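Subject: sequence -> structure tokens, single chain

Hey, anyone have a minute? Need the predicted structure for the following. Not urgent.
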Amino acid sequence: GGEFSWWGRLADFAQAGLLGVLAYGGLFTLAGLIFKRGLIWGLAYGFISEFVLTNIPALVRKVTIMHYLRSVALADVDITRFASGVRKKDLEEVSEVVGLLDLATPGSALITVAVIAAICLTLSSLVVWNREFASQPSRSED
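Reply:
Had a minute. Here:
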């Protein structure tokens, strides 16, 4: 491999961070508008789905946003680039752990998170629209 690129890593993590802000912001905005105790539901979702399910090595992790954010952030990671000075057994163990993540392709992960954010923000705006304008009495001119 070549030299480790800090700027490339920073760009991948910044992209994943921005996508995370959009997706989680949209999701938690929608939860806050729909549920009376939106904070409780958001914390429950964050703990159960994003903390527990993301770390289960099965298909279940693919229903979490974090799985796709990891795919974007770790898109260009090549373990063999760090092989100098590392024992072969250690390198195989790290490769196995990264392989267990079963990352999606960066393009599909980007699209998936963008679609989730767009759907949540659109539904949130519809909820606000209905609450603001559906409850107002119609004005009839006499």
